[in-house]
Amino acid sequence: MTADALAEPTDRVGGGWTTALGLANVAIWVGWYGPLQILLAQQAEDFAPGTGMSKETLLAWVTGAGAVVSLAANPFFGALSDRTTARRGRRTPWIVAGAAGGALSLLLLAGADGLWLMALGWCLVQLTLNAAFAAVTAAVPDRVPRLQRGVVGGWLGAAQILGAVAGTGLATAVGGIAAGYAACAVFVVAGVLPYVLRYRDLRLPAADRPAWSWRSFTRGFWLSPRHYPDFGWAWLTRFLINLSNALVILYLLYYLRDRLHHDDPEQGVLILTAVNAVSLLATVVVGGIWSDRVGRRKPFVHWSGVLMAAATALLAAWQTWPSAIVVAALLGIGLGVFMSVDFALMTDVLPTARDRGKDLGVINVANALPQVAAPALAAPIVTYLGGYRMLYAVAAVIGLAGAVLVGRIKGVD
After folding, report:
1. Close Cβ partners of 116 (under 8 Å, ≥ 6 residues apart)
2. pTM to 2 decimals?
3. Three-class secondary structure assignment of the chain
4. Which of 46, 339, 368, 36 has its CA nearest to residue 170?
5. Is 1 exposed, middle or buried (0-12, 13-18, 19+ CB in 10 A)?
6. Is 140:149 a contact under the CB 8 Å cutoff?
7. What local confidence, expressed as pLDDT, does residue 213 receive?
8. 298 near 409, Cβ under 8 Å?
9. Rounded to whole angstroms, what are the CA distances from 100 to 93, 94, 111, 278, 410?
10. Distance CA 389, CA 402 (A)
């Protein structure tokens, strides 16, 4: 289990391995989306009166602070896993440590009694779960051959949306903020156990570990777009489309409550998440399989991004509860194809096998950075520059830009 750690994989992975890794991914996303969709918004509403901030601004500050932590944590732990020579492998120790730390951090959030403890708890959740997520993501290029990565990426994409639905459902169903956090914490730990207990990880021989220096370690996080242009354009495409999606979901609970005056906004968020999940699941695996069979990536990423931008523009023009359901379905269709094929595209442009975890961590910054940028953009737009209609119009333009720029990638069909 050591000789192939840095080799390009050729043996196809089985369904059991993919299922176990997918379940670990579900667990991580439960730990993120239970808070993001429901629990943090409820806490922000409780704590805002004593802070002098609106609930929207308080939520933006807390989620933004957590996203800043995520920006550094994902590539940092990816780089550490690249250098790990433990008997359990390069990735598994970080999955275990990240999941355990994430569960404890969620329990800290459950007992938060004010803004500062809430912010600290969420930052720790981002720190620890990003350690696990970096290792889970890096396991794919470690073990999966190129022409199977579309379908595996599809199943991991399905796992992410299932995690979002499960996290939202747990946060809604168990009753109460503390109980919601506790339920998510239990799920995080239980979900990673099948993978870490059943499947052995590839070990990195100590002789293959690069010599340590802080200078080379920190400089390794910069990948010049001039030297790796495909990597740079792929990163920018993912960032813009994720930013568009983050702008849509950030204030969803408040949008239903304050703009649409929905009778039960928490239940409304759950319904929209479920509609989005069903349509996403209908396309996420199919899109990956189709991309693998035709051997192409860019057209799938382009047209799925265009569909998502069009759906977001529809939300800006038609602000009713029925339109929200239609948009949730259309976004799910587009996001399903995007998640599976874009993930395969990302693994196709990685510069070296030795730095897979670190380089995927840099790519995953394109997932986390929108969580910083979205609150900074959304709060002033909603408060001062036109409200939710303008917010979703801006999100549509950003998403369309991401769909167009994928054409700049030259080394992948």
Report:
1. none
2. 0.77
3. CCCCCCCCCCCCCCHHHHHHHHHHHHHHHHHHHHHHHHHHHHHHHHHHHHCCCCHHHHHHHHHHHHHHHHHHHHHHHHHHHHCCCECCECCHHHHHHHHHHHHHHHHHHHCCCCHHHHHHHHHHHHHHHHHHHHHHHHHHHHHCCHHHHHHHHHHHHHHHHHHHHHHHHHHHHCCCHHHHHHHHHHHHHHHHHHHHHHCCCCCCCHHHCCCCCHHHHHHCCCCCCCCCHHHHHHHHHHHHHHHHHHHHHCCHHHHHHHHCCCCCHHHHHHHHHHHHHHHHHHHHHHHHHHHHHHCCCHHHHHHHHHHHHHHHHHHHHCCCHHHHHHHHHHHHHHHHHHHHHHHHHHHHCCCCCCCHHHHHHHHHHHHHHHHHHHHHHHHHHHHHCCHHHHHHHHHHHHHHHHHHHHHHCCCCC
4. 36
5. exposed
6. yes
7. 65
8. yes
9. 11, 10, 17, 30, 41
10. 21
| Residue 198 buriedness (CB in 10 A; 0-12 / 13-18 / 19+) | exposed
Tokens read off for 28 = 């991580």
Confidence of residue 221 (pLDDT cuts 50, 70, 90): low
Q: What's the rounded Cα separation, in Å, for the pair 225 and 235? A: 10
Contact 346, 301 (CB under 8 A): no
If we measure between CA atoms, which residue out of 22, 179, 35, 175 comes closest to residue 102? 35
Q: Structure tokens of 118?
A: 């809430």
CA separation for the pair 38, 172 (Å, rounded): 7
Q: pLDDT (tens digit, 9 = 90+) per residue, 325-377?
A: 998 999 989 988 888 788 788 877 777 767 777 788 788 788 778 877 888 88
Tell me the two tokens of residue 341: 């094929």
140: its two tokens: 């794919």
Least Cα distance to 70 among 140, 124, 10, 137 occurs for: 124
231-267 pLDDT, tens digit each? 888 888 889 998 998 888 887 888 888 777 787 888 8
Task: Please provide the average confidence, as pLDDT, over all residues in the chain.
Answer: 85
Backbone angles phi, psi at 213, to 5 degrees: -160, 140
**Dist CA 143 CA 357 (whole Å):** 13
Please check whether residue 69 is in contact with residue 123, taking contact to mean a CB–CB distance below 8 angstroms: yes
CA dist., res. 50 & res. 347, Å (int)? 47
Residue 105, both tokens: 């951090």
Please count the other Cβ atoms lying within 10 Å of the Cβ belonging to residue 214.
7
